[in-house]
């Protein structure tokens, strides 16, 4: 097994990136809920699809980073 050491300047960037990623998912989820409440089907479906894609993308990246 390999041990990977992150550079000191990489950790804050990863933390900020993860926070922005989570905020993006929550923001688009709010758009999906708002679209559903206002009976805007296209907006709600599109936002839900984007949330799903971002969530699956995050899962794939997490699996790849844990394996590598």
Can you put this structure into words, describing what you see?
Keywords: Membrane, Transmembrane, Transmembrane helix. The protein is mostly helical. It has one domain (14-67). The protein contains two helices and no strands. The radius of gyration is 16 Å and the shape is elongated.
Keywords:
single chain; 68 residues; mainly alpha; 2 helices; 81% helix; transmembrane; transmembrane helix
Short note summarizing the structure:
It is built from two helices and no strands.
Total domain modules: 1
Mean pLDDT: 88
The biggest sheet amounts to: none
What structural category arises from helix and sheet content?
mainly alpha
Low-confidence stretches: none
Helical proportion, percent range: over 70%
Principal-axes geometry comes out as elongated
Q: Number of helical runs? A: 2
Oligomer: single chain
Separation, N- and C-terminal Cα atoms: 10 Å
Strand content: under 5%
Number-wise, the strands total 0
H/E series? HH
In angstroms, what is the radius of gyration?
Answer: 16 Å
Keywords: Membrane, Transmembrane, Transmembrane helix
Transmembrane segments: 12-33, 45-67
Please give the structural blueprint.
Elements: H1 10-37, H2 41-67
């Amino acid at each position: 097994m390999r041990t990977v050491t992150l550079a000191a300047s990489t950790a804050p960037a990863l933390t900020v990136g993860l926070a922005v990623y989570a905020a993006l998912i929550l923001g688009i989820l709010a758009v999906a809920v708002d679209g559903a409440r206002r009976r805007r089907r296209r907006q709600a479906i599109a936002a839900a699809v984007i949330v799903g894609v971002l969530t699956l993308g995050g899962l794939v990246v997490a699996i790849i980073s844990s394996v590598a």
